[in-house]
Write a structure and sequence with these properties.
The complex is a heterodimer of chains A (320) and B (651). Chain A is mostly beta strands. Chain A has strands at residues 3-9, 16-21, 27-32, 36-41, 48-54, 60-65, 73-78, 83-89, 92-99, 106-111, 119-124, 129-136, 139-145, 153-158, 181-186, 190-197, 200-208, 214-219, 228-234, 238-244, 252-259, 264-269, 275-280, 284-290, 296-305. Chain A has a domain at 157-163 and 178-308: YVTN repeat-like/Quinoprotein amine dehydrogenase (Methylamine Dehydrogenase, Chain H, 7 Propeller), CATH 2.130.10. Chain A has a four-stranded antiparallel sheet with strand order 2-3-4-5, with no helix packed on it. A four-stranded antiparallel sheet of chain A has the order 6-7-8-9, with no helix packed on it. Chain A has a four-stranded antiparallel sheet with strand order 10-11-12-13, with no helix packed on it. Chain B has helices at residues 69-84, 91-122, 126-154, 161-173, 178-185, 196-205, 209-222, 227-239, 251-270, 278-287, 291-296, 298-301, 304-315, 324-336, 344-353, 357-367, 372-383, 395-410, 417-425, 431-439, 447-459, 463-479, 483-492, 496-513, 519-523, 533-549, 553-565, 571-585, 594-608, 614-619, 621-646; strands at 10-14, 22-27, 31-37, 53-58. In chain B, a hairpin with a 3-residue loop joins β2 and β3. The longest helix of chain B has 32 residues, at 91-122. Chain B starts with 9 loop residues before the first strand and ends in a 5-residue tail after the last helix. The chains are: A mainly beta (320), B mainly alpha (651). β25 (296-305) of chain A pairs parallel with β1 of chain B.
Chain lengths: 320, 651
Amino acid sequence: MVSVINTVDTSHEDMIHDAQMDYYGTRLATCSSDRSVKIFDVRNGGQILIADLRGHEGPVWQVAWAHPMYGNILASCSYDRKVIIWKEENGTWEKTYEYTGHDSSVNSVCWAPHDYGLILACGSSDGAISLLSYTGDGQWEVKKISNAHTIGCNAVSWAPAVVPGSLIEQPSGQKPNYVKRFASGGCDNLVKIWKEEDSQWKEEQKLEAHSDWVRDVAWAPSIGLPTSTIASCSQDGRVFIWTCDDASGNSWSPKLLHKFNDVVWHVSWSITANILAVSGGDNKVTLWKESVDGLWACISDVNKGQGGVSAVTEGQQNEQ
Amino acid sequence: MEEPDTEPPLVVVPGADPSARQLCFAWGPAEVLVCETRFGRADAGEGAPGSSRVFVVRRDQDIYIQTLRKLFNESHGIFMGLQRSEEELAGKSRKAQLVQVSKNYRSVIRACMEDMHQAAVSTRDPALQGQYSTQVSILSAMELIWNLCEILFVEAAAAGLLLLRLLDWVRLHVCDVDSMVREVLSSENPSKHKLFWNVVDVFVLQGRMDEARHLLSKEVTANPTSMNMYKILDDLMKKMPMPSLGNTQTLTELELKWQHWHEECQRFLQDGTFASNPHMESICKILVGDEDAILEKKELMTTWYHFLVTRLLYSHPTVKPMELRFYAQSSMDLFLGGESSPEPLDMILMAAFEFEMHQVIKECSIVLSNWWFVAHLTDLLDHCKLLQSHNLYFGSNMREFLLLEYASGLFSHHSLWQLGVDYFDHCPEFGRVYLELHIERIPLNTEQKALKVLRICEQRQMHEQVRSICKIMAMKALRNNRLGSALSWSIRAKDAAFATLISDRFLKDYCERGCFSDLDLIDNLGPSMLLSDRLTFLGKYREFHRLYGEKRFPEAARLLLTLMTAHIAPCSFWMTLLTDALPLLEQKEIIFSAEQTYELMRCLEDLTAGNVDKQKFQEDDVETTKVEMLRLALARNLARVIVKEGTVEGS
């Protein structure tokens, strides 16, 4: 049974653009056109405002929580071209870094897997993608991929950390040789995959299938299979599931999940990657699941409506 | 892309004006956040503010129902027992074992029903009462289904035994008539009770011959005129051939006997023996399996499956399992008679009678609000080796699929997650990775909980997760200024960088306050001291202080010197170390040898000449004074030690 268990009244004075739970589901961060980022403690169905962060000068589009091993850190990006990283120090939240290297709205931020360190990818309407890496002592190193997407970049999403080759435990303190990758989606209708080689970021793959701006990309968490999976959605109303079977990441094949009647804005995977949530223009969030024979089926609709909550028992289409 | 069999259910989130906005969402570890928004960057800053609410949407809320807790905990025990059970047992004993497991599950369901019922009765809140009552009926339905599955699939009762089991099943579950029965039996004069014949009918319909006969005997004592009819009917009922448990007769024998008896009943009926007593006549009609007569007693049977079993009892008691499906479908049609349509429960039972196991599981998955039932039932059926034989290529994966769903749901609960761990352990394909992904999301509110989670990870060699958890705890401790705790966590995480960071903090604290905190920890570092250079220095430096405190000056002096010459100490700390050397230089006893003194002097010169803080030294008065004092003390010591070493004893 799917039901609404809590309603958090954020008191934002304008449209909310993003809401993200922290790693444990105990805190909620929201950001809005009212230029503020708010953080709530939502344990046990309650809501306590912990912080109201001001610093942006325009609508804030996205927030992202870093892994708790780095402390309580939140990143936000905004129409004001800035990326701000906030940190909780001694019980209070403060701005710990501000990045102003983009020429127009920064649309998306995404933290890399914690195994790589504290690295943030930012995609902007100026077509560039910046990678901010924490090097210690309050210092951040910046790498920029200019012209990643012509016209603009709308979304970035990291691939899960997978150690290539041996599974032998590395000697303490030594970092294994990860191959860092992330995916981006842009106004050139493309999904691109970027790989770090010799400390430089290179375009590894171009995935073409959409006929209009790509609005969101989401790389699925790894469940130990040798396949990689990316979901992408676009203004053309289509959602594609891309899979790559070989370890070298060379051949990606798309499968059309569904053609919606309107722009699809947002796609996202659950933490065990077994459910994909898609939000379309028709006021619905649909949940999709892959059945064991590799086909996708819609399992639930979450819809806005009038009046009271009517929770309907959820169906599971597990055998077809 | 598939088209699902049924429309995906819609969950409506309360809000205003669906036409104006869109829904934005994000996944939490166990929930989905939904909020109103309007996508499209061009709208930046414009438009009405709209709702400022964020909705938290979740599945599997049943785990929070207190009264179901027992169900989850105890069934976990049964599940684990089943996984570990003797697979070497074959044939009958294995089957008996599995049937016992099934019975155990059912008794847990019943116990839970009982608790739920108590809760419903004792609460005064009508809403709660409604909730509890709903739960009771859901649990009751679950037990009904499970019981039937046990008979048909787990025990796989063969013809003969099958009917007996089905009779038990009906008697156990069709309870609507129980109160009526009690009422009549406990009245002073049962045969005069207006519902008397109803109760007799109930007994006959359920094959409870002895009880029926007993009641009838009461009637005839009050009504001696019907003595003849009674004797005949009583005799027929006494002689009715039934399958027996003891295997004392074969199926063929039973069939023959039954045929005989059936004909005898027919004859008495046709002869008009019971014509003057409509009640007795209708009983005899039931005995010969007259469908219309049986159907007349619809209200006493209440369900089509009761009707099915009664029909079988009186027309085909040696029914074989595979024949059930025909009788089931026609029974349902006859009983419902086009007036009402089958409910989900009916469809599930029908699927069971048709031996469509997968259909049963699928329908249950759709109708029930959590995965508990289908996960455990499927697991049991899998152990009975029934799913593979159905030749569907995901047969063996279905068990795992359902267990993964069930266990995942447990993880959002603050204590039931521990049960989830065991379930994941028994999912060979994806259990481990699901566990890895879920266990990282457990909030580590207390050190105790963190240790518990850690132990689970360590037992399963989940090294990445161990490291990650230790790092998170170390960071937390550091933020709360608990340096000792932070240090021990980072040692456990084998995180050299963090250990260095914390050691620096310790040293900084020492410089500021002149003493160490967490001495116990630092004194007992042992080999873990080698994790990072800074940590080694911290350990050794503390050792120096200890030696000094125990007045073991030569050893202390040697250690101090080594710390600098072997470059264990960071350059930034040398000044402090040299300053620590001062009291040793000023002792009455000569502690530093000539060579050592030269070494110290060299260290001092290295420090002051052309090095990092040269500028600082020259500007800072305190520093300059210190350096001068050191030079003086070193020179004096040198002088004394040269004399001492140069002196020949006794002269």
